[in-house]
UniProtKB/TrEMBL annotation:
Top EC group: hydrolase
An annotated GO BP: glycerolipid catabolic process
Domain AB hydrolase-1: 22-251
PANTHER family in the cross-refs: AB HYDROLASE-1 DOMAIN-CONTAINING PROTEIN, HYDROLASE, ALPHA/BETA FOLD FAMILY PROTEIN
A single GO molecular function term of this UniProt record: triacylglycerol lipase activity
The EC number(s) this enzyme carries: 3.1.1.95
Pfam families linked: Abhydrolase_1
Gene designation: rdmC
Protein name: Aclacinomycin methylesterase RdmC
Native source species: Usitatibacter rugosus
Keyword tags: Hydrolase
Length: 322
């Protein structure tokens, strides 16, 4: 797959659809690479008239791994976070937003529509606040402002997120660990069949999995703390999608994101997706694409080419995940 240099790191990416169509840029979350965007969902977005680009963040997948920065002691940093002591991260969410802005420039994307999931939602929120001229719209999926007033994750979900594979670096151990994590944080209404989930996790691990990189990303999130003031700067048209079954970033996290943007004078729509956990279940792809297309279409003809039935018809259900 191709890669480009952006903000001092190499970013690996993949495209789908007609490059002459408006672009959608997909940014994934903590420790995850582009393969956690289900291919079936990407194909539906492309069929709806978009040029779809998915990327690996720094320290994820096949983008630059910053192992020379060391591996953080997460239990120690968690105690500091609980005690509200300063946390020093080797890089920040703002750095990751700058990566994304320079990636947009390097690819020559013309004001793409950016969609971020989980930590990727935080990245695109910061992108929209700091580099609004680079993008057309922002969609934040299962993400948060980071306010300490919000409900904490369910204990089991948070523990699963922070736990490393039994054998870090081992392929089978990494696959089994990801399967376990997605079971814990994913939809309870729409669980993946075992074989489907395993195939999905195998594709992700094959793209690249680095627990040390995920630990550095955790510090980027923790050191950012409450990002309400940053989110309040967002003025690009925004959509907030959040599942009502999310055990990791609870539903009020999405509501708070939308509230902050709205009360600061921004344009935002908030949608609670029934039956969605901290994942993107196959059965909900049509609904998610529908919300995204409607949001983009509402911004005018310059932002949208067409909505063909191909983008909203049931398609390949072979991919499901976070």
């Amino acid at each position: 797959m191709p890669s480009v240099s952006a903000n001092g790191v190499s970013i690996e990416y993949e495209t789908l659809g007609d490059p002459s169509n408006p672009s959608i840029l997909l940014v994934m979350g903590l420790g995850a690479n582009m393969r956690l965007w289900p291919s079936a969902l990407c194909e539906k977005l492309a069929a709806a008239g978009f040029h779809v680009v998915r990327m690996d963040n720094r320290d994820a997948g096949r983008s630059t791994q910053l192992d020379f920065l060391g591996t953080p002691n997460i239990p120690k940093e968690a105690i500091k976070y609980l005690l509200r002591l300063p946390i020093h991260s080797p890089y920040s969410l703002d750095d990751m937003a700058a990566d994304t802005a320079e990636f947009i420039d390097a690819l020559g994307l013309v004001k793409p529509h950016v969609i971020g999931a989980s930590m990727g939602g935080m990245i695109v929120q910061n992108l929209a606040a700091l580099f609004p001229e680079r993008i057309s719209t922002m969609t934040s999926v299962m993400s948060t402002t980071g306010s300490r007033k919000l409900p904490k994750p369910e204990r089991r979900a948070f523990k699963a997120l922070l736990s490393p594979p039994a054998k870090p670096g081992d392929y089978e151990s990494s696959v089994r660990h990801l399967m376990f994590l997605l079971r814990v944080i994913g939809s309870r209404t729409h669980p993946s069949p075992e074989a489907e989930l395993r195939a999905f996790c195998e594709r992700h691990v094959s793209q690249g999995s680095n627990p040390a990189g995920a630990a550095r990303q955790i510090l980027a999130i923790a050191s950012a703390g409450d990002r309400t003031k940053t989110v309040a700067k967002i003025r690009v048209p925004s959509l907030v999608l959040h599942g009502d079954e999310d055990p990791l970033l609870r539903p009020p996290c999405g509501a708070d994101t939308a509230r902050v943007i709205r009360e600061a004078g921004g344009s935002v729509k908030h949608v609670v997706v029934k039956g969605m956990g901290h994942d993107l279940p196959t059965v909900l792809h049509d609904e998610l694409v529908g919300h995204i297309v409607e949001h983009i279409k509402s911004q005018g003809s310059d932002s949208f080419i067409r909505v063909g039935s191909a983008g909203l018809m049931p398609g390949d259900d072979s991919n499901k995940g976070v």
